[in-house]
Predict the 3D structure of the following.
Amino acid sequence: MAQVKPHTDYMLRRLHTLSGVIPVGLFLLEHLFTNATATKGAASFNNAVGAIQSIPLLPFIEFFFIFLPLVYHGVFGLYVAFTSGYNAGQYSWGRNVMFTLQRITGIITFVFIIYHTWTTRFSGHAPTFDMMHHLVQNPAYLWFMIIGVVAATFHFANGMWSFCIHWGITVGQRAQRVTAYVSMLLFVVLAGIGVDAILAFTHSA
Amino acid sequence: MTQQTATAKKTVHLIIERQDGPNSPAYTQEFVVDYVPGMNVIACLMAIQRNPVDKDGNPVAPVAWEMNCLEEICGACMMVINGKPRQACSAIVDQLEQPIRLKPARTFPVVRDLVVDRSRMFDALKKVKAWIPIDGTYDLGPGPRMPEKDRQWAYELSRCFTCGACVEACPNVNERTSFIGPFAISQARLFNEHPTGKMHREERLEALMGEGGIHECGNAQNCVQVCPKGIPLTTSIAAMNRQVNAYAIGSWLKK
């Protein structure tokens, strides 16, 4: 008879790819959308932040649907990046380069999110347009934000491509090729929205 | 006249990474052999074997390598040629940049020179039960027929000859993981598709969920680039992801 084998690795890996899309990926989209309101002016952004603050059970939602999945995806992701081999120098095919970039952008995003939440969510200050305006006055912080947003959106968009394979959605070569183009289009659009919002904060209210 | 041809004689320059035994240090040696029209890398290695001297004429131990069919259907002569894992028999000198650099496929334990021990591939095939059990104490009769449209694509998968090029090129096959490699996933798909093999599909899916299974794939997709038989390995991996996930969720709900 087939004996019961432990499937822990399998479960942890699949949970990692799933958490990257639901809920972490969805939160990223929501976050970029909220940030984009900054392009409509300080009042618009502050209203959007106010609307989020008024969500009932917010600390509960934040902890279980954002914080925990994000920490899991990030910490397990570091382990994945560590166990992966890197041979894009020897085999410079497009997908292998993307494989390497996915891990590099993951690590950049990990560092970025720690610093980003430290200076905003856990700073003890209310998240307002003025606070962000003050932060991005520092050119180093501004560039750090831009690099972080580009890395995070790349990681998400390219991760969606990989997710579709890990979950057996895109099976054929053509389907994988088409979703690769779609994911890169998604990256350009999301990175554009994200950087646009950051630049909006540089204008004084 | 003869002297003139001798000086104008075309040669092939090879740089070979060698190793005397499994635990010996690696070193490189350079060789120059006479060019023969249409020759392949195996022909170069045979020339070295006939006259084992290095580029400067010093006698050396002949280079060891493996070969068998010489027509790219056995997989035995897989080695890293100019940076890419491929079969030495189908590596034609005219199509290679010189000097030709030969290295053993180091993802496997090196036995000697270009000879590697690919046991791990056969262990992986055993793990995923890449066969169709038909033995019994009495004649079970003919099995169910396979639809022709499935047979056609399954035939492509059956062309795998366990050469190990995909295992060599895969970044996720390394000392930090126990990944079984792309070929084994494709073989599990082949035998899961066969009408008789299908009767044991759960055992293969269980194996793919086990240690070093399908979840170790990171979609770098080098495997499909280096496969000498053009097997759609990445399609096989995605198809098996679908089977394994559906099985995992389905069996959990049935518990």
